[in-house]
Amino acid sequence: MYHYWGSGLTITSEIEFPELLPYEHTGLPDLTISIGTVPNQLAGVATDKKVCTASNPTEYLLKLLSIANYYASGGNSIIVEPLAAADDKSIRLFLLNSVMAAILKQRDMVALNASAIQYQDGVILFSGRTNVGKSTIISQLKQKGYGIFCDEACILQTGVDGQIRVLPSYPAVNLWADTFEQLAEPLPPEADKLRPQLPKYALRYHQDFNIMPKPVKQLFLLNDLAINMPVEIKKLSPVEAFSEAHNNIFYRQQIYPMKKEAVHFLNLSKLTKDIPACLITRTIYRDTFEEMVQVIENQIHYNG
Amino acid sequence: MDNKKIVWLASYPKSGNTWFRAFITALLHDGELDINNLKSDGIFSSRRLFDEHTGLNSTLFTDDEVKLLQPAVIDRLAATLNQQHLFMKVHDAYTFNRDGQPIIPTTSTLCAIYFIRNPLDIAGSLANHKDSSLDEAIALINNPEGKFSRQDDNLNTNMQFTQLMLNWSGHVKSWTDDLPFPVLVLRYEDMLADTYTTFSKALNFIGINATQQQIETAIAASSFEQLQQKEKEQGFAEKNKNTLFFRQGKAGGWKNELNTNQVSLITSPHKTLMRKYGYMQ
Known about the structure:
The complex is a heterodimer.
Chain A: E1 2-6, E2 9-13, E3 21-22, E4 31-35, E5 48-49, E6 53-55, E7 59-64, E8 68-73, E9 77-82, H1 88-106, E10 110-119, E11 122-127, H2 134-143, E12 148-150, E13 153-158, E14 164-168, E15 172-176, H3 177-182, E16 200-204, E17 214-225, E18 232-236, H4 238-247, H5 261-274, E19 277-283, H6 289-303
Parallel strand pairs in A: 2-4, 4-9, 11-17, 17-19
Antiparallel strand pairs in A: 1-2, 1-3, 5-6, 6-7, 7-8, 8-9, 10-11, 10-12, 10-13, 13-14, 14-17, 15-16, 18-19
Helix pairs in contact in A: 2-6, 4-5
Chain B: E1 6-11, H1 17-28, H2 47-54, H3 63-80, E2 86-90, E3 109-116, H4 119-130, H5 134-142, E4 147-148, E5 163-164, H6 168-176, E6 183-187, H7 188-193, H8 195-206, H9 212-221, H10 224-234, H11 254-257, H12 260-276
Parallel strand pairs in B: 1-2, 1-3, 3-6
Antiparallel strand pairs in B: 4-5
C-alpha cells in the first residue's frame, strides 16, 4: 500500500502515484484507491448519463475507452479497473482529474480550476478555464522569484473563523511543450510527460510543496478572446467575481447531477466577498504572457 | 421526438458554409442576424461540445481518442435538445475512426448539405483566412492528409479539434459518395448566381417551410455586404486569424490571384471532380 496526501485528503492506494505527496498518516484514510471491478452501470433515476460517464449524488462511474474504468463512491473510495492496453500514466492522469473531482464533490469540497503563488502569509489565485494560461503565468512569476503554491486545482476550505482558505491539489505544474520555449527553458525529458502520447509535461516540486491551508490575498480571473487587443485588466465587484469564478469550478458539469450547487454557491460567495478580484483579458492572436505578468505584478503591488 | 434531427452543413473551408448559416439564422429569427451567434447548434470539431457531453477534459485526450467518442457526443447532443432540426457545421471529411466507425454518426443524422466551391477560388480565400501565402493554401488543398486547425507537435489546446479534411477532391468524394443519409450538393457559384432558387432548394430538402417573403428577407439580411459590414463593426468570433473572414464573396476571383503555375497545381490533381461540378471544360 502507498500512502499520500492530495487535494486535502489522506490517501491509501494500491496504485503508486508519483504525482502525489508521500505522507504517512494514522487511522483510516480519507480516500482509498483500490484495483477491482467496477459496476457495469449506475442505477437510479437520479443518475445523469453522459458519454463515458455517469453520476448521481453519491456515485461516479467513468468508463474510459481502452484506458480504465473508474468507480468513485461515498467520497472515500475509488475502484480502478485498468484495461489491458493502457499505460500507467494515462490511468493515473484521468483519476487525478475527473475522478478526483467527483470524490471532492461527494465530500462537499469545492475546487476551482486555479493555480496559485505564495504571497505574504497567503496566496494569490489565478483562475480560468483549461488552457487559458494559468500554469504559464505562475511559471513566469516563479522566474521572477514567487513561490508556487499549486497548479490545476485549488481546494477551498472554510476555516474556524469563517474565512476561506485554500489547499493545493498535488505538487506538479503541468505545461505544454510550446510553453518551455516561451519560458526560455529546456524541454523536460520524455519521462516527465503526463501521457506518452501528449506533449504536456509535469514539473514536480515535492520538496517545496506546502499543504497548510492559506488565506487568499488576491484573485485574478483569466480570459482570452479572438479579438486583437492589448491585455486588459478590470476590477470586479464581488458579484462579477462570483460569476466568473463559478464558471471555473473544477469539473463544473458534475455539480448538477451530484446536487452540489448550494455548497459551491456558499464557498464561492465567501471567496469573492472581500477579496480584491480582477478580470484579465488577452487576445489569442499573439503571445501576451510577459505583458500579462507585468499587468499582474502592477496590480499585486497596487493592492498591497 | 425523432432523434434523426441533425442537418450537417458540410464543406471544405471557404465554400459558402458560413453564408448559408447566416441565411438560416436570419430566416429563423425573422430577418434578425447576429453574426457572432450564427444558427448552428455547434461545429463538429467543438471542444466545448465534447467536454459538455462527456463531462471530461478533452485536452487530456489524443486526437485519435477524440474521434472515437465524437459520434456518441453528437448522438447525445441530438438526444438532449428538444428541437426539430439541429444545424451542425463540419469541415472534417467524412472519414472513419480507428474502430472503423464513421466519425459522423448515422443514428442522429437527418441529412447533409454539402457546399462545394471552385478550388481555384478557395485558394485565395483560404490563404486570407489562414493568413498564409497562396502556395501554402494550395499545398493544403492538394495534401491528401490535409488538416484544419492543426496544431504542431500534437499540441491539443485550440478551441477546436484538428479536422482531417484530406485534399479537396478527397473531401468532395467523402461527402458525395454513397452515404447512409441523404446529401444535397450546393455549388457556391449557384448560391451567388441565383440565391433565392438555391437556398429555397436547400430548405425544401431539409423540410423547412418558408414563404417567399421570409426567404427574401433572410437573403437580404445575410447578403455579403451585410456580413462584411457587421464583421467590421462587431468582429467575428469564428475567424481563425487576425484577418477579415468575409473577404470578397464572389466567383472567378482566382483569375486575378493565381499565376499559371498555381492554376496548374490545382487543376492537375483535381480535374476529374472539377469537371464533374462544372469548374473545368
